[in-house]
Hints:
Helices cover 30% and strands 28% of the residues. Helix 4 packs parallel to helix 5. The chain has a 10-stranded mixed β-sheet with strand order 6-5-4-7-8-9-10-11-12-13, with helices on one face. A 3-stranded mixed β-sheet has the order 1-3-2, covered by helices on one side. It is elongated, with a radius of gyration of 28 Å. It is built from 5 helices and 13 strands. The chain crosses the membrane at residues 7-31. InterPro entries: FtsQ_DivIB (IPR050487), POTRA (IPR034746), POTRA_FtsQ_type (IPR013685). It is found in: Membrane.
Amino acid sequence: MKKLRTVIIVAISLLIALIVYLCATIDYFSIKTIKVKNNKIVKLSEIKNYANYSLGENIFRFNKNKLQTKISKDIYIRSANIKKIYPNTIEVTVEETKDICYFEIGKDKFFVDSDFNVVKNKDRIDYSKIVKIVGANENLSKINNLESDEKFYEFLKNLFSHKVLNQLTEINVYNASDITLLTKNEISVFFGDLNDSEKKSNNISKILNEISTKSINTKIVDTKDPKKPFLIKENAEQSE
């Protein structure tokens, strides 16, 4: 009985080894198809080029991390989820970067994405549809992420998180103590300096929402004093 049990265990082990060997070697499990999802800016052919080295590779031996490393170097891709679809397909779902504003230094354009990374000259971005920062300090062009400039980072982050940034066309920072925002409705928002940017951004969000919902006719909003923000109506009346 003991001998029979040993024979059975050996037979099962050999069978498992054979199955593993076949899975790792037969053409049925060789990668033949690369599917790409969710790409709008990055071309399908470009993503496939990143993955073409894997064609013909056994799907069980395929290293997802290697492909993720290759794809992550693309300036237009924020992240990629790579999935094996057995027996012979790789599916790549990308999340592209979302640019929220840009600034110019000389002839170069520098784009800031939603992770506040700074990237030079993205030629596929329609910069007419995102916020332009006028008068940006040249030092901003020398950093990879705005977190390196704490105050300016907090300023933009608060405008973004309070959903103010997507209502703007321009941010004028020529005078860092007298920053002005311009909305898509051509309302000038006097922001003042970079201090108290969270409170000011919250105030701006509330005031712009009030202007929209109540159809208030105004072209000027002043939030320099975070404790006393106000707007000036077209009839010159003042409302806090």
